[in-house]
Fold this protein.
Amino acid sequence: MLLTAVGAPPAGAEAPAENPAQVVREVRIDDRTRDVAVRSPEIDGPARTKWVRLLLPRGWSPDTTRTWPTLWLLHGGGGDHRDWTANTHIEELVAGRDAIVVMPETSGCSAYSDWWNHGRGGAPKWETYLLDELRPLLARKYRADARRAAVAGLSMGGLGALKFAADRPGEFRAAASYSGAVNLLYKSRDGGFDGPDAVKAGGLVCLTDWKRVWGEPGYPFDTQDPGDVRQRAIWQRNSPLYQAARLAGTPLYLSYGDGTRTGPGWKWGDPPPPASRCTDPAAHGTDDGVERAIHGMNQELRGRLAELRIPATVCASTGTHTWPYWERELVASFPMLMGALGV
């Protein structure tokens, strides 16, 4: 079923002429769920269109003058706007909460960044699209309050959540990362995956040259010359580890596993995840090479935040790079996220 959102812009919303992003289609999934197709020149591809899934609260209407706080949930590499509703009970979790959940689609290798494109810039500009175009568009069409927003994401989306909070201090009232790729300049100390390996794999997923994203990281990855830094500065600019100081003042939640396949010890319907799950493994396991690298990245970020005396809620546990752990941590972090929104 196709619908058209209507209503006058709330006070302070960006005027339509100033925003090139446009809603070109809306599909009603159920009473609370809408899939919205948005076209923007900042999106690459012939259609320049991506979907956004919205969970709307009871009593929502596009015709009112009020607005609703927003929780942004970002997908991981290879994912899309349907991932959170397909793999978690987010609908039940947010039921009764007076907030809009925004689940945007980017690409499987977006890195939630404006791409370097070999120095040429231009599309895709994922951060510009999401934060400078989609946010005011949702404010205008769907009464989403951009000033009362929190952001969370998994894997690549965890990178995006902390990157957005660091890039735009104060614009998100809380940020949560579940198994986030929080430093893609991570260098494994024992022959495991390095951070740039994830960007290279993303290029394969997207059938594109991985160097388009941020260029090349330079030493110590694809060169043995310490003076050969190539585009390392771009990688650092997009790394929550290197931008950690800019996270000061934002409530933070970090969860990650060690790569050991033990099972989450929790399922939907159980009481809230117990604090005892956060066993804080000092070293990584060997069952899951991806989460093994994630463990190293997050250990570095955790240490950096401590150096800067920036508080963060941290849950390091046994576990792998899979949805049962991410849903557990979404539930565990949900009170913090909702509390930051005043919901």
Summary: The first strand starts at residue 22 and ends at 28. The first helix runs from residue 83 to 87. The chain has one domain: 16-341. The beta strands are 22-28, 33-39, 49-55, 68-74, 100-104, 144-154, 175-178, 252-256, 313-316.
